[in-house]
Amino acid sequence: MKTLTIKGKCDGFGAQYQAIMSGIAFCHYMNYTYIHSPFQTIAHNGDPEKLNKFIGIPSSDNTKIDMAVKCCGEVHFSKSPDMYYNTHVLSILQKYYYSTPKPTIMIPQIAIHIRRGDVNENNEKRYTTNDKYKEILFFLLKKYPDQTITIFSEGKIEDFHELQQERVIFQLNDSIEESFHSLVCAKVLVMAKSSFSYSAALLNQNMVYYIPFWHKPLKKWKIL
Question: Domain count of the chain?
């Protein structure tokens, strides 16, 4: 049986976690053995030691590795990711995730992830405007008239003045662990064009809304 590990990435937590998920999913699909390589460095001030514990994936004593890749592109860029992220694989990822302590949070009724920080208007592929989020916001306020919406992002409240409405609150600049776990637990999750919220969506067992980008959605997600 071949062995595979994911290693060599140095970008943010979401991208590295999604890459690891792609490796686990690919190994189950191909009947390979996944060997976990812990995070070594994480961009955007991520603490590798804390985040290794946070995701709960155990390291292996097996040192024989046949393949070491940064991600499994067959999964990462599949047009049918349900082939790999089936119910069994998702349950394994969720079991790993919940095997270690998580921060105490107020579970959001509706969580919207807005990617900012290193993404701005100059990056059209990754950036979604406040005007587009305003459309999404009014759709959700109408569809869920009794629910509160929490926006998770980075920056200052002034950066989101178009989105300030009744029943809308902001969680800005929280820790990686708090923000991510809030997205995982949300009763309704609206993803960004982001591996951070894509990874959270794979773990979220409730309603997920997806904004189209290069990582394709699971069939059960609702496309905005």
Answer: 2
Domain that holds residue 208: 110-223
Return the DSSP state at 150.
E
Query: Which residue, chain included where needed, has tokens 């394709």?
Result: 216
At 10, give phi and psi (nearest 5°).
-135, 20
**Gap between the Cα atoms of 85 and 45, Å rounded:** 29
Q: Of all helices (H) and strands (E), which one includes residue 51?
A: helix 48-55
Q: Which of 196, 176, 175, 185 is nearest to 115 (CA)?
A: 196
pTM: 0.94
DSSP H or E run through 176: helix 176-185
Question: Is 103 part of any domain?
Answer: no
pLDDT in tens, the chain (224 residues): 899 999 988 889 999 999 999 999 999 999 999 999 999 999 878 899 999 999 999 987 777 899 999 999 999 999 999 999 999 999 999 999 999 999 999 999 999 999 886 666 666 677 788 899 999 999 999 999 999 999 999 999 999 999 999 999 999 999 999 999 999 999 999 999 999 999 999 999 999 999 999 999 999 999 99
If asked whether residues 155 and 92 sit together in one domain, one would say no
Q: How far apart are the C-alpha atoms of 212 and 192, rounded to whole Å? A: 9
Nearest 5°: the CA angle 180, 103, 166 is 60
Of 198, 195, 200, nearest in space to 14 by CA? 195
Query: Alpha-carbon distance 184 to 107, whole Å?
Result: 9
Residues 128, 83, single domain; the answer is no
Q: What is the CATH number of the domain that holds 158?
A: 3.40.50.2000
